[in-house]
Amino acid sequence: MPDAPGLELIRGEIDRDCPGAVLATSFDRAQAALIVDPERVLEVLRWLAEQPGHRYDFLSSLHAADYLPNQPRFAVHYELINRDRVERIRIKAMLEDGAELPEIDSCVELFPTANAQEREVFDFFGIVFRGHPNLTRILMPEDYVGWPQRRDFPIGGEPVTFTYSEARYD
Amino acid sequence: MEVERRSLREKQISARDMLRGDLEGEDLERYVEERVVTTTFAKVQNWARANSIFPLTFGLACCAIEAPISIVTARYDLARFGAEALRASPRQADLIILSGRVSIKMAPVVRRLYDQMLEPKWVMAMGACSSSAGMFANYAVVQGADKFMPVDIYVPGCPPRPEAVLYGFTKLQRKIMGSPDQSWRRRYDAYGTEEWARGGPRSEPSPEAARAYGEARRSVEALREAGEPSLA
Amino acid sequence: MTEPNREAEMGMSTDLLETPPDSTFAEHGDPPDLDREIMTINIGPHHPATHGVLRLVVDLEGEMVREVRPVIGYVHTGIEKSCEDKSYWKVIPFVERMDYVSYFFQMEAFCGAVERLIDLEIPPRAKYLRTIFLELNRIHSHLVWLGTTALDLGAISMLWYCFRERDKILDLFEMATGQRMHTRYFQVGGVIEDIPLGFEAKCRAFAEEMPIRVGQYEDLLDRNEVFLSRTKGTGIVSRERLLELGVTGPLLRAAGDPWDLRKAFDYLVYPEMDFKIPVGTVGDNYDRYRVRVAEMVESASIVRQCLDALPEGPFIADDRKYVLPPRSELSTSMESLIHHFKLVTEGYRVAPGEVYYSIEGPRGELGCFVVADGSAKPARVHFRDPSFVNLQAFREMAVGGYVADMIASLGMLDPILGGVDR
């Protein structure tokens, strides 16, 4: 984990090469995160993966979270690992919800491991990844309607029926 | 049919005489009586079916590690009940053990497997998830496999111990042989308290019970309308 | 990937796979392309060899696999969504049922993430106990893998031997926790209960015996011609490609990369343990088999070291805001009663924040991402499951080989569909 000053140094270097991409840094509970503009996320990922001093070239996990009722509502998280210095960093791209599905660039060419993980995020949150070769549902049935892991999707199931609650006993 | 028991030596002598063709009359009748059991064909058929069940190798989730994998291993041996031959093809299997949670994507597949099995066939819902969705009361799990297929025996547990599965298996065997095991009802002499959910000999409650159920339901609805928060 | 050189291995010409001589075409005109026809078949989701409900749509040309498309989701249980509805300690039984042979690992990932969120330090005895159970679970997972994979490849007796040891491990779990599987043993702050008397002796006897048993398994399989020819040289994926695909765990180590989170990111008591990381050379199925079998021996050694170093002390943290007080105090201390009541009814609240915590599971990196919003229920729980990511490498392993090699690769990939589908 780069410590807090190390994180600021990384942010400074990124600002030099890709100005305006990083919106904020966050160092919470010993975990370093960079909050990035969703339009520029591919640039930042490529910079981190290819820059000689910071080879964060292993995408450990790509996942999303729904922060309803806070806005912006969605965040796509990229967990990167630098295997030489054994450090982790998190990239967070916040997305708004609107009339259409939120969109973000896909990083499949840079990290082929993101293929199935982006499909999972699409399946559960409805976030569209531009440029993904096969963006279809992966865990839910193909014809399912709805984005299950959004906070406003009902959890489902059915109430337990006791004998007295059956209407035919009167 | 009672036959006096003879000693082994006497039986050996009569068997030797039979082979020679020397037995006749009463001795011949007694020889035959000792070796013949009369019963109905249905009972023999049920006995054969119960003791040679071919389970289907079907594992969905965690319960699959306990059965079918763990009960065929040496410690909890399923072979001693005659069910050693697990078949992979549903056309050749008798018993499908639903071991694990049935998700909504898998339910049509399970139903198709069940339809492909030939009569007579039985279903064991093993574990809490296939009996009633277990702890997963959510959008992705079918709330009990009996929503889309008939189930003969439910084995509770999460996961049930292999001994529990074997106990359920022996109960199923007794059910197949025509005398379903009422277990605690026999122990506590509580016959007549069964309720059958759909069809069956006692699918309607007695008038007293129906009145009591109606009272309970009306009181719960009244509380809900009065705004009781825990019932909303 | 080029066609495997079976001719050299079998000493037989493979002319029959080539097109027939020209005279046939001249006589009858162009035949339908029977030799080149692609046949799409569907393997699963109910299939004895697909370790769980995995559906493979395979394009075959003869016996050669041209394309494989895994279809998953048949045991999707909505665990991540269910967790948002439950208080933190009720989430633990949910998450341990994801990857159903390595349940302690999921508990550790979640409890570790929440302990990071609330900044709670667990006592040393709890750390050692957790490590013991994690390594026992690793051996258990590898035994299940070995038994079922050998069964797929035809070495049927291995199943019975592996499950004999597995039953011994489950006896240990039952002795300490009361349940064979899905024990709910780890809690936020430590473990729920101390180990009983006699556990240490039994566990030590098991750890001593395990390397001997592993030797027996190797005796059974090491010179098995069929097993060797099915696993050597099949399913090779290069190390760089595996890293691009995000594959971790024994698959990556078999390809030659010594990446193990136990040594890379120190957690629990692994920095104090002395163990080796088995690493393969070629990256074929045989190396994967050898890496996992060697890992079993290393895990037994870690268990023995932990038992030797097990300190006395509390088995769960002392912070009454997050951990239930011992029942003996409930009758004497009013504060404990209030804490107990609060923890059981509502649960503890966690300050807002998010944490990603990952550990080395038997299949690779198991990560847990928890978002807390200040209430008693987590706002988001997501698991980075190793089998889900490793399954993406399956296509590379299978395409270009025979169907039988695909089955061997699937076994050696060791997917657990509960983790893949969650």
Short descriptors:
heterotrimer; A: 170 residues; five-stranded mixed beta sheet; 3 helices; 7 strands; 27% strand; C: 422 residues; mainly alpha; Cytochrome-c3 Hydrogenase, chain B; three-stranded antiparallel beta sheet; 18 helices; 8 strands; globular
**CATH classification class of chain A:** Alpha Beta
What is the highest CATH level, the class of the largest domain in chain B? Alpha Beta
The description of the largest β-sheet of chain B is: 4 strands, parallel
Category by helix and strand content of chain A: alpha/beta
Would you give an account of this structure?
The longest helix of chain A has 14 residues, at 4-17. Chain A has three helices and seven strands. Chain A has helices spanning 4-17, 41-50, 114-125; strands spanning 22-28, 31-36, 58-66, 74-82, 87-95, 103-105, 128-130. Chain A starts with a helix and ends in a 40-residue tail after the last strand. By secondary structure, chain B is an alpha/beta fold. Chain B contains nine helices and four strands, in the order αααβαβαβαβααα. In chain B, strands 1-2-3-4 form a four-stranded parallel beta sheet. In chain B, α4 links the parallel β1 (55-56) and β2 (95-99). Chain B is elongated. The mean pLDDT of chain B is 82. Helices cover 47% and strands 11% of the residues of chain C. Chain C has a three-stranded antiparallel beta sheet with strand order 1-2-3. Chain C has a three-stranded antiparallel beta sheet with strand order 6-7-8. Chain C has a two-stranded antiparallel ribbon with strand order 4-5. In chain C, α7 packs antiparallel against α8 (199-221). The longest helix of chain C is centred in the N-terminal third of the chain and has 30 residues, at 124-153. Chain C is globular, with a radius of gyration of 25 Å. Residues 6-26 of chain C have low confidence and may be disordered. At the A-B interface, loops of A face α9 of B.
